[in-house]
Amino acid sequence: SVDSTVSITVVGASGDLARKKIFPALFALFYDNFLPEHFTVFGYARRKLTDEELREMISKTLTCRIDESENCGDKMEQFLQRCFYQSGQYNSEEDFSELDRKLKEKEAGKLPNRLFYLSIPPNIFVDVVRSASRSASSPTGWTRFIVEKPFGRDSESSAELTRCLKKYLSEDQIFRIDHYLGKELVENLSVLRFSNLVFEPLWSRNYIRNVQLIFSEDFGTEGRGGYFDNYGIIRDIMQNHLLQILALFAMETPVSLDAEDIRNEKVKVLRSMRALQLDDVVVGQYKGHTKGGKSYPAYIDDPTVPKGSLTPTFAAAALFIDNARWDGVPFLMKAGKALHTRRAEIRVQFRHVPGNLYKRTFGTDLDKATNELVIHVQPNEAIYLKINNKVPGLSMRLDRSNLNLLYSERYPREIPDAYERLLLDAIEGEHRLFIRSDELDAAWALFTPLLKELENRKVAPELYPYGSRGPVGAHYLAAKYNVRWGDLS
Ligand code: BG6
């Protein structure tokens, strides 16, 4: 049989994402021997660079994170020798033909497979897909395209993008990334749930009072205001990262671990959800703040943000799944920039124990006595379960303490970056962690009416100081459903 080879072309090679995430992830895969024996990496962008200049540029962001030994330096050199550059316009079939010619040179005699990673702004997705698929598709092997959000701004623009992509590609050639699906603890969600008898039977409205999906960053949109202002936090984080976690969390048991079986269940649960109403959402925007002699800018101070912008940098929302398993259970989401801490977590608050023998010990605040399962997606990856326990001693005092699985202790080896997992899956043709077009449609259907209403009514975001815990409105929203945010209590 003929040897095969994989060429990975990073389109938009000089951009931030490519330099910070894609090339380092490819190197990490190479370092750990996960890349096929025959592979080449091409950078493609408008700038004129030589192969050497590309190598120079990406070598700055490659790290020997696993070991600092000389061996790593050698490996880096070997990797860089397999990296090449082609400059060209994004909409030029001639320029992609030139790439095709160079790819053929490297592929010499082997079965050529080609992966394109589009690390470019959304307004040129279709141009690149058109020219690259026409001029640089593999003649005999597979050709795949990885695309990353934003996939439109609403149902209509997303459907239009899908329609255009499908003129040139079939669904199985398209890998829509949501990098949260590549995070270790998100991938682990299904393992936790479906392989543990102590969790699976409890996973429903019968035992779960509410679920909280929390994303916060302790920095603002510095430098990305131009992109961000056109999207806002709901499109940037909720409609994709948090909703994907929700779908994995709440879906029914898939028939198997095959990509289509899993994605069928995700679509089903997304389609069982109620579209968001204005009443179920609180939006915020950070304002300038001085702390410890240091001053932090307001969102609107960013020169790339239009004056008077109402774009939310924070949002909290209550979502509901109208099916037998989850009827009435609030799924609360909260996402914000420029908050007091950086974290992403899932909190599952269980119901109160009926007829709790010890309830007097807890006074009237039974919330303090309920079990809570917390999944720390990042940083400090961990899973812990809050349980009630007797404080040792002669008096009967109860204490809620944690059964704690701390990854840094249990699994000291560094956790791979999400992009490593996802790139490897795309090379192997595994779609499990990528978004299918009907999932995307269902996700937009939930958020589009709300986004339009926010914009049409020009809803003013509640201002919160940079570095704070966000707008108080988020507490009122939770209280409306009898919930307290677990991260703040
Ligand atoms: C991106 C968003 O999708 O995710 C950014 O566009 C955000 O605004 C980023 O900062 C967060 O990713 P991570 O992996 O750093 O949590």
Task: List the topology elements.
Elements (H helix, E strand, L loop, with lengths): L3 E8 L4 H16 L7 E7 L5 H9 L10 H12 L1 E5 L5 H15 L3 E8 L6 H12 L6 E6 L6 H14 L5 E4 L6 H11 L13 E9 L8 H5 L2 H19 L8 H13 L9 E7 L1 E3 L2 E3 L17 E6 L11 E6 L6 E8 L21 E7 L3 E9 L7 E9 H4 L7 H11 L8 H20 L5 E4 L7 H8 L9
Helix pairs in contact: 1-12, 4-5, 5-6, 6-13, 9-10, 9-13, 10-13
The structure holds 6-O-phosphono-beta-D-glucopyranose.
Care to describe what's here?
The protein is an alpha/beta fold. Helix content is 35%, strand content 22%. The protein contains 14 helices and 17 strands. The protein has helices at 16-31, 51-59, 70-81, 93-107, 125-136, 155-168, 184-194, 225-229, 232-250, 259-271, 407-410, 418-428, 437-456, 473-480; strands spanning 4-11, 39-45, 83-87, 111-118, 143-148, 174-177, 208-216, 281-287, 289-291, 294-296, 314-319, 331-336, 343-350, 372-378, 382-390, 398-406, 462-465. The chain has a nine-stranded mixed sheet with strand order 16-15-14-13-7-12-11-8-17, sandwiched between helices. Strand 9 and strand 10 (294-296) form a beta hairpin. The longest helix has 20 residues, at 437-456. It is globular. The termini are far apart. The model has no long low-confidence stretch (mean pLDDT 95). Bound molecules: 6-O-phosphono-beta-D-glucopyranose (BG6). 6-O-phosphono-beta-D-glucopyranose binds at residues 179, 217, 236, 344.
Q: Percent range for helical residues? A: 25-40%
How many helices? The count is 14
Share in β-strands: 15-25%
Number of strands: 17
What hetero molecules are bound to the protein chains? 6-O-phosphono-beta-D-glucopyranose
Catalytic activity: D-glucose 6-phosphate + NADP(+) = 6-phospho-D-glucono-1,5-lactone + NADPH + H(+)
Family: Belongs to the glucose-6-phosphate dehydrogenase family.
Keywords: Carbohydrate metabolism, Glucose metabolism, NADP, Oxidoreductase
GO molecular function, one term: glucose-6-phosphate dehydrogenase activity
